TrEMBL record:
Keywords: ATP-binding, Cytoplasm, Ligase, Nucleotide-binding, Pantothenate biosynthesis. The gene is panC. The active site is at H44. This is Pantothenate synthetase. Homodimer. One of its GO terms (biological process) is pantothenate biosynthetic process. HAMAP family: PanC. It comes from Agromyces agglutinans.
Length: 288
């Protein structure tokens, strides 16, 4: 018996990928891009499913982008599981996976030209991971230029990333739409993440502190931001193995912290180290 060969086409170079896209575009097809760093899980597959609804041709990129990892971060241990990723995408109607090497994406070494994420890029995730969002936006801008999609799908799980990508698209006039897909969770509330695989059984239980903090925040919303922070903080601090990084309530329009007494829509962002793994999560809540 011969092993099943994944049918998803893999383009390792920009030229190969462009050939696939150009051919389909010449036939009038619209194109959706799902940018990923691989280690695909159901959250990524939800992005692919949404992309299929929005366009004729779906391209998935799989590239662990060194530019968005700082010194001492988990670039080396970030899971690289291309064969399993291709198997997961098999049969989902993906026209091609773009899986370039680092040299293909950054032929001159560390890219000399970068997108600058600005003030919001230095807050929350950006404060803990300096340069992360400049690196993320740089690779996303490159992917947009390489694929030239009509729409690109991102997960709500990375709320700050989504905010910054939307702002880059607006500020730099990229001609495409951004589609935001809800976070996929385990039955007990844990948001799916490629990094969850690093959690021990104990860490996995402790990691629920993030989604529990968000639930507490949501319930306290009508009582205002101070109560939201107090309730969420109590839930967040309830697990010994959890080292909270930040817990903040932001205005979805500016991504800056809301003022005391604010009412209306807000986003609660949480981040923590659980064991050796850094996790983030967020939820939309209503204040007042
Ligand atoms: O969300 C991710 O996986 C990455 O930040 C992205 C958007 C693929 C850019 O490397």
């Amino acid at each position: 018996m011969t092993a099943a060969v994944p049918r998803t086409r893999v383009a390792g170079t920009i030229a190969e990928l462009r050939a696939v896209v150009d051919e389909r575009r010449a036939g009038g097809a619209s194109v959706a891009l799902v940018p990923t760093m691989g280690a695909l899980h159901e959250g990524h597959l939800a992005l692919v499913a949404r992309a299929r609804e929005l366009a004729d041709v779906v391209i998935v990129s799989i590239f662990v982008n060194p530019l968005q990892f700082g010194p001492g971060e988990d670039l080396d241990r970030y899971p690289r599981t291309l064969d399993a990723d291709l198997a997961a995408l098999d049969g989902l109607g993906v026209a091609a996976v773009f899986a370039p090497t680092v040299a293909e994406m950054y032929p001159g070494g560390a890219a000399s030209t970068r997108v600058v994420a600005g003030e919001v890029g230095s807050l929350y995730e950006g404060a803990s991971r300096p340069g992360h969002f400049d690196g993320m936006l740089t690779v996303v801008a490159k992917l947009f230029h390489i694929v030239r999609p009509d729409v690109a799908c991102f997960g709500q799980k990375d709320a700050q990333q989504v905010f910054l990508v939307n702002r880059m698209v607006r500020d730099l006039d990229f001609p495409l739409a951004i589609e935001v897909v809800p976070t996929v969770r385990e039955a007990d509330g844990l948001a799916l993440s490629s990094r969850n695989r690093f959690l021990s059984a104990d860490d996995r239980r402790a990691a629920l502190a993030l989604s529990e903090a968000l639930r507490a925040a949501e319930a306290a919303g009508p009582q205002g931001v101070e109560e939201v922070l107090a309730e969420a903080d109590a839930a967040f601090g309830a697990h010994e193995a959890v080292q909270p990084d930040y817990l903040v309530v932001v205005d979805p329009a500016t991504f800056l912290p809301v003022e005391p007494g604010a009412t209306g829509e807000a986003v609660v962002l949480v981040a923590a180290r659980v064991g050796s793994t850094r996790l983030i999560d967020n939820a939309r809540i209503r204040l007042g």
